[in-house]
Design goal:
Layout: E1 4-10, H1 17-25, E2 33-39, H2 46-56, E3 61-65, H3 75-84, E4 89-94, E5 98-99, H4 104-114, E6 120-129, E7 137-138, E8 146-147, H5 149-152, E9 167-169, H6 170-175, H7 189-199, E10 202-214, H8 219-222, H9 228-244, H10 250-264, H11 274-288, H12 292-303, H13 306-327
Parallel strand pairs: 1-2, 1-4, 2-3, 6-10
Antiparallel strand pairs: 4-9, 5-10, 6-7, 6-9, 8-10
Length: 328
């Protein structure tokens, strides 16, 4: 049986996909693996590069060249590659990332073979920024060898698993596909990792074996953290995760959701609109249960009507001026 299907998703990755494929083809393994590339109707030269590689490696590379963009930030493209996989294990990959170790596939297969109760495994990765907007850094600095649902749920968003570091069991995923609610989320990774952890621990290899590339055309830059669409999508996603987990982490997830209501106060769509801001400010206070100091600041800055604040300022200045005159 084929051991691993490396599932690669591409969209406008013409500048990067050759390095991605070369890093996969260089893998040193004791087993056979295949590479399945799903292209989401790229508008650059990605397809030309893919076809050239497939012609050079016809027994190793299979292409899914979609005739339309499947949408949702590449999630449906990824699911299409998973459905086409034939290996015992699936290794996820984004078309602008690449491997730095020739032993990545071998080490992950050995870990999953040795721990049949693991639902998946991952390793560390380095984040690089093509535009040099930030220094390179590691995705995580963790020490644990395995993770459960409790480790993946926090008051803030926990992102310590790079997409291209994950390997999971194909048959298990086929039997337990992503729930329907996940198809509403622009993030495929966060809910999918939660679902993995529900079925069993996620193992970890404390080695840097890939690069997570941040480029301006990539999916990570499509997430506008102060755009209302993104923020509402995150609110919906974490609300669905809360329900999926039977509200066992309700306090944590409410505070997580509250951060997105707080960001709506500064979103380009609502920062200058009084009544929506009142609604989201009250929702933030309800969910986050902030300190009295923070609550007063939220009320002052986002709930008290602007004309009252102006009137208060006028009175305060008047009182100050009267006191100044009286003291002379």
């Amino acid at each position: 049986m084929l051991k691993v299907s490396v599932c690669v998703v591409t969209y406008n990755h013409g500048k990067f996909i050759a390095k991605t494929l070369d890093s996969i083809l260089m893998q040193e393994t004791t087993f056979d693996f295949e590479i399945i590339v799903g292209d989401d109707l790229s508008q650059d030269n990605t397809r030309e590069v893919l076809i050239a590689y497939q012609q050079r490696h016809p027994d190793k590379i299979r292409l899914l060249l979609h005739d339309r963009n499947l949408g949702l930030n590449g999630k449906f493209n990824a699911l299409a590659t998973f459905a086409a996989a034939k290996g015992e294990y699936i290794a996820q990959f984004d078309g602008d990332d690449y491997l730095t170790s020739p032993h990545k596939l071998q080490k992950q297969v050995e870990l999953l073979d040795a721990h049949p109760h693991y639902s998946a495994c991952f390793h560390n990765a380095e984040v690089i920024y093509d535009d040099f907007s930030a220094p390179n850094h590691l995705v995580n600095w963790i020490q644990k060898s395995e993770f459960n649902v409790d480790d993946l749920v926090g008051e803030d968003e926990l992102c310590f698993i790079a997409t291209s570091s994950v390997m999971f069991r194909r048959e298990d995923f086929a039997k337990h596909p992503d729930p329907e609610w996940t198809n509403l989320s622009t993030s495929g990774d966060i809910p999918r990792n939660i679902m993995f952890a529900k079925r069993g621990p996620i193992g970890y290899i404390d080695e840097v074996m890939s690069v997570y590339r941040k480029n301006r055309g990539g999916a990570s830059f499509a997430d506008n953290h102060y755009g209302a669409d993104f923020l509402f999508n995150r609110i919906q996603m974490y609300s669905n995760i809360n329900k999926e987990l039977d509200y066992r982490f309700d306090d944590r997830l409410k505070k997580n959701i509250a951060t997105y209501y707080y960001k709506l106060l500064f979103s380009k769509e609502y920062k200058d609109r009084y009544w929506p801001k009142v609604k989201y400010a009250l929702k933030y206070i309800q969910l986050a249960k902030p300190t009295s100091k923070v609550r007063r600041e939220i009320i002052r800055d986002h709930i008290v009507p602007p004309f009252l604040m102006k009137f208060y300022s006028f009175l305060a200045i008047g009182v100050y001026q009267l006191r100044e005159k009286a003291s002379k």
